[in-house]
Amino acid sequence: TKLSPHYCTTIQSQSTARLTEPAKANMVKVWYEPPPYGPGTSLNRPAYGARSGNSLVQQLSRRPQGMLIGGACAAFACIAYIPIMVREKNLPFTLSPEYQAAQRAYMRYHNMNPIFGISSKEARAADEAH
Question: What is the pTM of this model?
Fold first, then answer.
């Protein structure tokens, strides 16, 4: 059962009232201090988180957030562009104009996407105009 704080206080005050004077004199008042690095830590272990010193993480955490986010986005964009630069010369064969023309003809023959797509009246009229 869960006891209310008021009920616990009354039990404590009644139990200390029953003690005799010599027993009260032998009682020791204990002061509780929580661990210095928060609950779940102990004094014989180092604190959680970044260690002391000038580490890169600590230096970056002191910078303005907008600058860090912008720099990270720019770095990721540069890294993502590297494969595009390398492959730009050798495009896949499916991107050649001949292959795409054959694909359009195949899709028209099989009447694929007849309402809004390649087989629609608007798309056929636009291709005949060219």
Answer: 0.34
Residue 117 has pLDDT above 90, yes or no: no
Return the exposure string of 62-84: e unless at least 16 CB atoms fall within 10 Å of the residue's CB, then b. eeeeeeeeeeeeeeeeeeeeeee
| C-alpha neighbours within 13 Å on the C-beta side of residue 124 | 12
Indicate the DSSP class of residue 38: -
CA pair distance 120, 130, nearest whole angstrom: 16
Phi-psi region of 27 (alpha: psi -120 to 50; beta: other; left: phi over 0): beta
Q: Please report the pLDDT score of residue 100 as a whole number.
A: 92
Reduce the DSSP state of residue 50 to 3 states and report it: coil
Decide: helix, strand or coil at residue 8.
Answer: helix
